[in-house]
Amino acid sequence: MISVVIIGSGNVAQHLLSAFATNSSISVIQVYTRNKDAKLQDITTEKIIHDWSKLQEADLYIIAVTDQAIPSVSAQIPFQNKLVVHTSGSVAITALDTKNRKGVFYPLQTFSKLKKVDFQEIPICIEAENASDFSIIETVAKAISNKVYAIDSSQRKALHVAAVFVCNFVNHLYQIGSEICAANAIPFEILQPLIEETAAKINTLTPKEAQTGPAKRKDTSTINAHLQFLSDSNQKEIYKLITKSIVDHG
Amino acid sequence: MISVVIIGSGNVAQHLLSAFATNSSISVIQVYTRNKDAKLQDITTEKIIHDWSKLQEADLYIIAVTDQAIPSVSAQIPFQNKLVVHTSGSVAITALDTKNRKGVFYPLQTFSKLKKVDFQEIPICIEAENASDFSIIETVAKAISNKVYAIDSSQRKALHVAAVFVCNFVNHLYQIGSEICAANAIPFEILQPLIEETAAKINTLTPKEAQTGPAKRKDTSTINAHLQFLSDSNQKEIYKLITKSIVDHG
Q: How far is residue A196's CA from residue A206's CA, in Å, rounded to a whole number?
């Protein structure tokens, strides 16, 4: 049985709590959060603490707070030589305070409070400073996910940028699509199968092989008709830039 | 039994052939294609014709050729007062020659030769000039898809632009993600669950509700770190523009 303390009460903290709750080899013995109004599921209230002096010893401390707070929160842990990991895609392992052993436990997924996820399918990117710590982190990660990868801090930085493109930016294009539909009395659900097929396609084809559409075909008459159709200058600018990028690199 | 002739031999023609082949209420009696080397499945070779004079009478002629060729191909059909539809998202119903009855049969999906699709889940957007023609087109569409929508030419134009954003442009962002991974020795498969969850999420949340990430949080320190990380000027420009769009409208 590996004992874990989670530090934080946001989306990542909650999703980790729910994932560990389904697993008998990991025991979440406490959650520390500054936020006294935090509502957390899959943990009994007496295990939620707001005072560092009540922190218990554990095999692993998982910091799931905002990127900026990671250095100061890790410095506040009132122990030494414990294994402490953060969960951020964009913060180096070295941001953790040096008094404890350092590691990273980065679940690569987009978490919303409102939406359940299947943690088994979420890749967890892990890193540690030595082999025995790596092994503890790996055991905890494999307890909740089938997809555990060793990714160092410099790779994780690249991965996080790539994730912004394929998740946040992609979702913003969905938003533009939904706005165009709304403005023309078209139910956005018509686009959902296309959206899911576009995502599924790259399981079997590279994105370059999978590309279709007017930019790929260099079909300037359709491209010009689309630009003429778009009245929103922001949408137009995005259309132009990505079309140019597909024509040049796609 | 409704008799159908398909005109064309590209991706859309092939996917329609395969879909109709599984249905007993629709009979594809011929395929016309200019291309004598066309390799088509789910149709016997004697039914593939290259000569307009061999064209038989049918209840419905489906033109699945490039957008530009629709007017001339529809003019070459050696019949009058037949029901002729095109399959394009970006061409108005009026592009069809006036000697026949006009309609549109637009399957909203991204078709690749290399990838099978489940036609039942593909929305088909249909349009006709009169109710009885609409009814024939609707019967054919419902024979192969559970998702049939009445969409007029002006809505279809908007829908096609929206589809370019949520499919072609999204796929290009996948390509950029895969390039960043390749440059950093990261397997692109790590991003696949994130990509699929991002697509699935908007089944239950609006894209605006679903948004996460540094731009949404207006986290300028992460944004600046990402811009510094990106060395490719095209990737950098896309990062800047979409980040600005999320900050302003997301």
A: 16
